[in-house]
Each structure stands twice: as structure tokens, then as C-alpha cells.
Specification:
about 130 residues; alpha+beta; 4 helices; 2 domains; about 20% strand; about 25% helix; binds zinc ion; two-stranded antiparallel sheet; elongated
Length: about 130
């Protein structure tokens, strides 16, 4: 069991783990069972490491999430230029316009494959430079 699984299991039981200095604080303490206590003791090093890591930055997967992070729409930035935030966007329709960006650089994904919208497949799109050569 990894640190993440332990944390998920504890959160599921209404327990929260946090880092206070070099020790793990469990709240609310009255909910801490002997089983969990033993688990924390056994995996303390991994848990400490996990709790010390900053949470991953939220990576926008849709145009709306992109807007929330960057304050502009993905298409407000030049499509011919790379944009790191557009790398994570999935192909999507916004107001009936189909947007697809290159996952390698965030430029406009001019070349696509596996595009079959009637079967719900929006495909993978790449700029000319990054289209996989297979
Ligand atoms: Zn590209």
C-alpha cells in the first residue's frame, strides 16, 4: 500500500492527515483507530514524503478550465505559437467550434487521427511538427 492509498483510505473514514513540523497530525484524533495508527507508524517515511510534496498545479483540460487559470480563452493566444497551457486540453467543441491543440507544444493541432465524432471519438491532434511518424 502506497502513501496515496493510505491517505485515500483514511479520508474515506473521515480522517485528515497533515504535516506539523516533522510529525503527522491526524484529525479528528478520536477517530484514529489502532489499525490506522499502526499503518501510519509502519509507513511513516513514505507518508511524510508524500505530505511534504506540494499539490500538483491544476492543469486545464477544457477551455473553461483554461480560462479559469489564464484569464483568456485558449484561442485568444496565437494558434501558431506554442502555449504550455494548451498541451493538456482535450479536443472539444465550444459553441459548435471544434478546438484541438497539439499535446506536445500547445500549437494548433492541424493534423489528426482517430477522429470519428459519430462514435464519440474526437481523435488525437498534433501540429505538423509533432505528428507521430509511425
Ligand atoms: Zn506540436
Amino acid at each position: 500500500m502506497g502513501a496515496k492509498e493510505i491517505l485515500i483510505a483514511m479520508n474515506g473514514s473521515g480522517l485528515n492527515l497533515s504535516l506539523v513540523g516533522e510529525s503527522i497530525r491526524v484529525s479528528p484524533p478520536e477517530k484514529l483507530t489502532d489499525e490506522f495508527r499502526a499503518m501510519i507508524r509502519e509507513h511513516k517515511t513514505v507518508l511524510l514524503e508524500f505530505l511534504r510534496e506540494p499539490p500538483p498545479p491544476s492543469l486545464p483540460k477544457t477551455a473553461h478550465e483554461f480560462f479559469a487559470v489564464f484569464g483568456k480563452w485558449p484561442w485568444n493566444f496565437s494558434a501558431a505559437k506554442p502555449h504550455p497551457g494548451r498541451k493538456w486540453l482535450k479536443p472539444e467543441f465550444v459553441d459548435r467550434v471544434f478546438f484541438h491543440w497539439c499535446p506536445e507544444c500547445g500549437r494548433w493541432g492541424a493534423a489528426g487521427r482517430n477522429f470519428n465524432p459519430t462514435r464519440g471519438k474526437l481523435g488525437e491532434w498534433y501540429c505538423e511538427k509533432h505528428f507521430p511518424k509511425t
